[in-house]
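Q: Structure for this?
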Amino acid sequence: MAETSQQGARDAPAGGSGASRTVFQFAYQRSPDQDRKEPQSHPIVIVGAGPVGLSLAVDLAQRGRRIVLLDDADRIGEGSRAICFSKRALEVWDRLGVGERMRAKGVEWKVGKVFLGDGLVYGFDLLPEDGHKMPAFINLQQYYAEKYLVERVAQLPGIDLRWRNKVTGIDRGNDHVRVTIDTPEGPYRIVAEYLVACDGARSALRGMVGADFIGETFEDQFLIADVRMQAEFPTERWFWFDPPFHSGQSALLHRQPDDVWRIDLQLGPEADAKEETRPERVRPRIARMLGHDAFDFEWISLYRFQCRRMQRFLHGRVIFAGDAAHQVSPFGARGANSGLEDGENLAWKLDLVLAGSAGHGLLESYDLERVQAADDNIGHSTRSTDFIAPHSPFERTLRNATLRLAKRADFAKRMVNAGRLSTPTAYDTPLSTPDTEAWTGRARPGTALVDAPLVDETGHARFLTEVFAQNGCRFTLLTYGANGAQSAPPGVAVVDIGPQAGYRDATGAFAQRWGAEPGAAYLLRPDGYVAARMKVPSAARVEAALARAQAM
Amino acid sequence: MPLVTASNLADPDAAYRMIVEANRGLSEAQSAALQAAALLLLANHVGDARVLQEALALARETALEAAKP
């Protein structure tokens, strides 16, 4: 019980269901580093081969960096961990070479429905427009995501992935971190110029730097069951308040690949973890929900959750990302997705710092931007959780009044909060150049690249996200009806869009989404975020924006 | 202060009576549900977060006073 209450949704199995089954197995191998007299030095050591650590490693390797990636296990276990991957996460994975594979295996969805009792309160569409390469969301078991990433890692020469390498201690210097690692063949040491901790909610590294969390823990317990069955439910996120099959509580139903369905049932603060996760106890609850008993359990666990973050993500040469740095409730799919966004934010900065073209200060912007994002995610997640599990009789009265009003008054539908699903946070950051002209469109400095359908010179359809990736995910000057080469500094990629340019905006979607008028230019960062936009670009303006985006 | 605290209703007695009558015959729980719904409806109608903030602050002040011995 105490054990369970400490666990986040993506943690190891909770009590009651036993140890997790191994889905994919890898092998420990002795590294030459273990036989050296003096500890070998490495520019980047990443701890934790989960989705965040693996994706960060791939991103850095594609930028030409060498990485040592350590994981204390040698397998991927089953389990109720992340399943909903966002459009932004898929866009990141696409440029890392695994997006299409994830998408092909995953189940795409964009519609969510909220019910009160057995009546529909409202439905929402997370991507009501065409012209995006990636869907609003896919559902995919985390073990598939990790497997595809591990296979991608194997294709890249720069990543040394070491299974059953457990970090047991660190010793922080001014310009390095000494790392002690335990293996099945005994301990050894290496030295890291930068150590990135992606070691999950119960991060050991967090303890080693002596950092604490700030935030809150919620009392309500939720039962997660992944069940295998043939079912006719549509591929939509269905959320019930006070359903007839689970009176007074909430329930969530979500489809995954392989005929697996995620079911999430609120049990209240008093539930007994051991008792409630017994299959013979869970089965009738779920049979009541589904109206039949023809299903098998893949996984059962009980959890409480926290909405909290570390005060700082940057501790000298030790950098925290993903669940190790911040945790949210699962309503909103903001855990793994925000971890992947941490990785894309960090990869290019670490690359520039190691290349010597930016100072260590650029890493401070990782802290600043990703702390903003964590607060944004924690804010949304806390509000959703408060709505789903009210703290007091009054909050319950207010919540129920909102739900009943929603059937009669449109405004209340927008107050019903069964999870606000993950979208990338727009950064308020010194790396952005403030607008000096009046703009429409969504491409405000600090926002993530908004996709649009384009046509290339050979008449083939290309998405803007693909064109950006094809140029190597570096600083890119994007122009509309202009010649970017005239104002692009050396080393900056150029993408011209226009009737006479390399890419045509055949549908007009680019101009509309980016608020582009002929002559406009946008400077994109290597993570695709907008650094600056100019209606009257010049070499000097672009140069200044570029300098600003690399210094802090 | 954007919140109007000067008298703003043509017939304040009638408005007060309206609130009383809406709650007549309701249980305590039903009455609480009514207050909550009315608060949400009126908050949306006002549509101004600053007005709402000031109204809630003033209301909270009176609530804390009510709890004093």
